[in-house]
Amino acid sequence: MTLTLSETDIAKVLTYERLIPAMEKALAEFSAGRVIQPVRNLLAVEEGKRFFGIMPAVTADAMGAKLVCFYPKNAGTGMPTHLAMIMLFEPETGQPLAFMDGRLITEMRTAAVSAALTKHLAPEKRRVLALLGSGVQAEAHLQALRCVCRFDEVRVWSRTRHHAERFAGRLGAQAMALEPAVRDADVIVTATSATEPFLQGAWLKPGAHVNAVGSARPTWRELDDDAMRNTLIVDSREGALKEAGDVIMSKAAIFAEAGEVFAGSRVPPDSQTTVFKSVGIAVEDIAAARLVYDAIAAD
Fold first, then answer.
1. What predicted TM-score, i.e. pTM, was given to this entire model?
2. What is the CA radius of gyration of the chain?
3. Which CATH class, in words, describes the domain spanning 3-106+282-298?
4. Full DSSP string of 57-87
């Protein structure tokens, strides 16, 4: 019997404590060539406002596809900018297993990958976190990063000051101007839909780690060229070179994929400033969906 799972069903079983190691495993397998996955096919329904993506993947444990609506035009309307559905199959037999909401999975798997890399790459003393953006991904990253780091200070900046202050009041952060928020921060998260770079590499302290998860379009950017000249990690080389404006337009050299870092085959020295540019790939969604299915099926 094929399960139909709502976001409420998923929220009951999906935790960062289980998801973070699952993302490490999935991405290590991806970088080792044990995953069948094309680059996301993203249709521009209305450039800059409405996009529709198709994301299939096959692993040893799971097979499926995510259909995702990326609607920047929904920002500020009460509707999410990302909406999705995931279909999960048994890879050995092709049996359909589940049809599930993909919004929360997308939100949490993105933050879980950043948390996993932060655990591996951030300075030993991870004390100050700067969140650039105050939306869904900023909050998800705060939750996920608190599973792997103990921060003494959390700063937040948003292009709309009121949004930053509201976020800070709810989640125990401090609303700040952009440059002061970044300076001396150990971990920085950029989670915006910016089209022009706003994070300057000159503000980053040596050894800092940046999780850049927003603006995943070929002509959109969050980081300037100076920031992108640091040690660059991506989730998928092929995906980043097709979709990530920060990588494409800066012509930055890619040091490693996240899966190579997790497998220990490519690890930068602790003293280097690192940047993780995430575009989000299908194997993350399918691995997370399998985690959800197994947890619910076991009950």
1. 0.95
2. 18
3. alpha beta
4. EE-SS-EEEEEEEE-GGGTTTTS-SEEEEEE
pLDDT of 289: 98
Q: Give me the mean pLDDT over the 178-185 stretch.
A: 98
Distances in whole angstroms, Cα of residue 103 to Cα of each of 53, 177, 239, 240: 13, 30, 21, 22
Within 10 angstroms of residue 137's Cβ, the number of other Cβ atoms is: 25
| Whether 122 contacts 186, CB under 8 Å | yes
Whether the per-residue pLDDT at 24 is higher than 80: the answer is yes
Band (pLDDT 50/70/90 cuts) for residue 75 is confident
CATH code, 107-277: 3.40.50.720
Ranges in the chain annotated CATH 3.40.50.720: 107-277
Supply angle C-alpha 275, 170, 19, rounded to 5: 50
Q: What is the mean pLDDT of residues 56-79?
A: 94
Q: In which residue ranges of the chain is CATH 3.30.1780.10 found?
A: 3-106+282-298
- pLDDT tens-place string over residues 102-118: 999 999 999 999 999 99
